[in-house]
Amino acid sequence: MQETIAIERGGAAAPRAPKSLRTGAHPAYAALMKLPQPLHAARLIKRYKRFLADAALEETGETVTAHLANPGSMMGLNQPGARIWLSWNDDPKRKLRYAWELIELPGGAWSGVSTAHPNRIVEEALRGGRVAEAAGYDRLRREVSYGAASRVDFLAEGDGLPPLFIEVKNVHLRRSGALAEFPDSVTKRGAKHLDELAAQVAAGARALMLYLVQRDDCEAFALAGDIDPAYLRRYHEARAAGVEAVAYACRIDPPPDADAAITLDRALPIREAAMRAS
Asked: Apex CA 40: angle with CA 93 and CA 69, to 5°?
């Protein structure tokens, strides 16, 4: 069922949630996208079958299998021996009690690995008025059907404004310098989303592709055309058709703090010159 959520505008202080969210009916969408607690430090043994990872818990040495909500290649983030952080869920219906949430990177940096979190991070930012591209919009719907059997992540609406279709892509690839890149593997679905956003612009709406860099050590963003040349071409076609694009970095408040969280932080420059297919 589609749901309308008011977006509040806020200053530096944490935003007050709209009345529909203050009731407590939606605890997942708090002022910050807090990570599940408790979090347990572990050493990565291996990632396999896309959605599984074996790790050794630091506190006990026990080897556990954790769920990984990430279908991508995880290039640069799946080295054995890396220090990672796992959440624990005591739901007896879950086959795997642990889930991989974070990885510590060289130099004290951090990266989130779960693709289940970006939409929550972006929604919190939209409600807090921290996505400049959505200024003036005061109504938001999640997972709205559009295009060819697709659902857009968010549809923002405001009196006197064209509807704004927002698609969110998770980013955590870094190969050179402080440059974040997307995608880390071929994404036909992502290319389809670009086409569908362009169609909405042709119909009179606005469309925004929002790349969320879920790590805190990047200063710019580009597309990895050598990994997926087709996506790069479709991106340029969509941009020429009027689709807007923005990249945002994340702030990560790491464990062992009980308030560990991932928050949309600041816009990153998009380096068009770096978007070249090999």
From this structure: 55
**Token pair 């055309």: residue:** 225
Show the tokens assigned to 258: 């009980």
Compute the distance between CA of residue 206 and CA of residue 163 in angstroms, rounded to an integer.
6
What six digits make up the tokens of 231?
Answer: 């996506």
Instruction: Report residue 233 as tokens.
Output: 């071409």
pTM over 0.90: no
CB contact burial 34-48 (16+ within 10 A = b; e otherwise): bbeeebbbbebbebe
Structure tokens at 38: 């408790």
Q: What is the pLDDT of residue 217?
A: 95
Burial of 255 (0-12, 13-18, 19+ CB in 10 A): buried
Q: What is the helix (H) or strand (E) element at residue 235, kind and residue range?
A: helix 229-240
Closest CA to 152 of 200, 108, 111: 200
